[in-house]
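Thread: Newbie trying to understand structure tokens

Hi all, I'm a second-year student working on a class project, and my supervisor (Dr. K.) asked me to get a predicted structure for one chain before our next meeting. I've only ever worked with sequences, so writing a 3D structure as a token string is new to me. If someone could post the tokens and maybe explain what I'm looking at, I'd be very grateful. Here's the chain:
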Amino acid sequence: MTGVVLQARIDSTRLPGKALLPLGGKPVIFRVMEALNYVPAGIRIIACPEDSILALKPLAEETGFRVFSGPKDDVLERYCRVIRHFSLSRVIRATGDNPFVFADAASALNEEAAALDADYAGYTDLPYGAGVESVSSASLLRAAEETQSPYDHEHVCPCLYNNPKKFKIHRPVSPPQWKDREQLTANGEQRGIRITIDTLEDYERAVQLYTALKDEPERYNGAAIIRVYSQLFAEKQRGI
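---
Reply by user tm_fold:
Sure, no problem. This is what the structure looks like when written as tokens:
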């Protein structure tokens, strides 16, 4: 069975409590789960530390997600416990920072990964905050046994994609309708479309974007999000 597994916590260094900040009348994490409900899967789980359950469980139940608790800092182990508990064969990994995750891109990526029997799959060149990763459960369990790196255990998937000789990796360039065409400047600095929430500036931008998208019939699809984002912030830059 394939499961959407959303990692989340209510504490954050750069933007404390960001998961519970309001976005269109509901908390940010609710909007993330709302978008992920458009990604086909046998089960949807929010995987969080014990100290986040009280705040997140009612929101998970409202959106049809199951709740599972695991280590706060060893997120790889948290995922491994989810895999074992729910007997998952494949994981669609998502994070609680991304309320504008591209549901259609996530669906397509997971289909590709399953068809190729890839251990790890992730699109490149998506807007920052738009993507998910599709991972073979057996491969993630194996990787967790083989790495003791704190970085690998915090970030979950580097132990797969940084070891292409051990694991079958699928990292295609994003199809044109989802691609961020201006990700980097000439000197390599980030620009282009940023739809994650990590700072107060990100959150303020997200509020504007959500307001602009709320009546968009395809607001969970990447092309619509890119179009509305580009129109909204291009206009602001021109002072319209």
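A couple of things are worth pointing out once you decode it. The radius of gyration is 17 Å. The chain has a mean pLDDT of 93. Feel free to ask follow-ups in this thread.
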